[in-house]
Amino acid sequence: MTVTYNAALKDTRMNAVVTAIDAGTSFGVLEIGTAGFSTSLVSITLQKPSFTEASGVITAAGVPLSGTASATGTAAAARIKDSSGTIVVSGLTVGTSGTDVILNSTSITTGQTVTLTSGTITHA
Asked: What was the pLDDT predicted at 2?
């Protein structure tokens, strides 16, 4: 059976996610990797606040945001870390449309500028 939360609780939970990402003195990071995170391709520094929340959905603030690729590969997964490197959110999908994390390209080469054009996480 699927668990359902009321709207106010979804908002509270998603605001707690934003608070966790933004904890610490520095900025949270969106890390993009290959399938199974066998290779980390690029880290993109988030704004502070990192996301805005509305109706159980958090949306990346300040987009577009960019980072320089540190490796070559196909972007397939993403996770968000707080400023101390603790993973706050994992299992995010990556693509050029219809995914949690929208990039300008999923084909990434070392030294390439990778741009986050949109990012949303929806409370289930």
From this structure: 86
